[in-house]
From TrEMBL:
The protein's name in its UniProt record: Glycosyltransferase
Methyltransferase type domain location: 265-357
Stored CDD domains: AdoMet_MTases, GT_2_like_c
Domain of life, per lineage: Bacteria
Classification via InterPro entries: Glyco_trans_2-like, Methyltransf_11, Nucleotide-diphossugar_trans, SAM-dependent_MTases_sf
One example GO MF annotation: S-adenosylmethionine-dependent methyltransferase activity
Organism, scientific name: Bacillus tequilensis
Coiled coil: none
Amino acid sequence: MVKTSIIVLTYNQLALTKQCLESIWEHTNNDCIEVIVIDNGSLDGTRDYLKQISSIKAIFNKTNEGFAKACNQGLEAASGDNILFLNNDTVVTHQWLEPMIKLLYQDDKIGMVGPVSNYVSGPQQVPVDYTNIEGIEDFSRLYCLQQRGKSKAVLRLVGFCLLVKKEVLDEVGSFDERFEGGSFEDDDLSLRVLQAGYQLKIALDSFVHHHGHATFTGNPDLSISRLYGENRQRFIGKWKVDVTTFFDSQPQLTAFVPVEAGTILHIGCGAGAAGTELLNRQTCTLYGVENDELLQTIASAYYEQVISADVETSDLPYPDAFFDAILIGDLLNCSMNPRHTIETLAVYLKPSGSLICSIPNTAYADSFFSLLLCASTHTHFITPHNVNMLFPEYLYNIKSITSHSNDTESHIQLFLQEMQFLAGQFGLSLDHLSKHAHIDYMFVHAIKKKQNETEVAM
């Protein structure tokens, strides 16, 4: 029988702690779990309450040791095959643990899972229709029945309720205690689990109610905004990259991928967030090109293969006409010869396959201003006016060109207006510049022509 050690942290908030523990005992097979509670110096009667419960392991800290260190104390005391970190401001529901354990052992590649909830950041949050505690159970039963057996691949799981194999923690280590108080320690652990080659999954048929930030709201000595800011800087200092770099799923780019595409190459795949979204949507095999070694390692948890390559000058290790779709991130503006790059990639694309490109607009107000200041990384002036010229007519039919707009800073807008006025004084027209100044990205979906179409075009 697989045993799960449930680790709960407390810091005051006695009423919520009682509610959490009682929900565990009501909705969990107690023969399959042990409950470990670490109290971080509560002064509201929590310690006396915990001392009365003989069925739990209790650890009492004299002061608030923070989330990461207290969780690690619980981990040291745990004897289970699995470790479940659970906030004390949660309410678990009927059959909450079983689906997570089933998913965790569905595949050896899965190292960590989490449930869905009413209050959590990212894709674990789902809309709910209950308005009080009494309505949680009815909602949970119906929702989880509709989602039975379903899961979602992600690059991040939130630490309010986190189930992980003990052997995985033995391999990657426990929470990093440099993240004081609580925030970013779960992001950090998620990346280390991915870096070790394991996958993260959300069990869509497990629901846990989360009051959210109760420790902070109930303890005025703690500042969530200060802790968040400090830990964010610690995260960036450790990983040498902003956290948002890992989790951008590029939904506007992946929206153009045909649902029937089975083999997909993503050039500039980053940490693989876009790939996980594709895997959640359709059955496919992913290949990636990413030159950052850290991002490449993390993406490899979900991609069949991720290589480092210069797509402009290197032959890629794939057969001709291998891919149903090829995605290109923000590469073409920095390419020495973007048209040649697009021609070369056609070799690896099946006839009628999709080439989908995200292309920054050089005429976007902020980009154009950076260009004037010699601060731009763009080597080509690609705009909505000339973007179609990158796709040779003998190779591709352009299915669509769409654009994304973004606001620009008022002083840059004013500068461009003045520059357009001055140009007019000298008989020069910059109307096209102001026309496209609000567009920051263009998305081009091109279809590779079949052989007979190519011969006609040539």
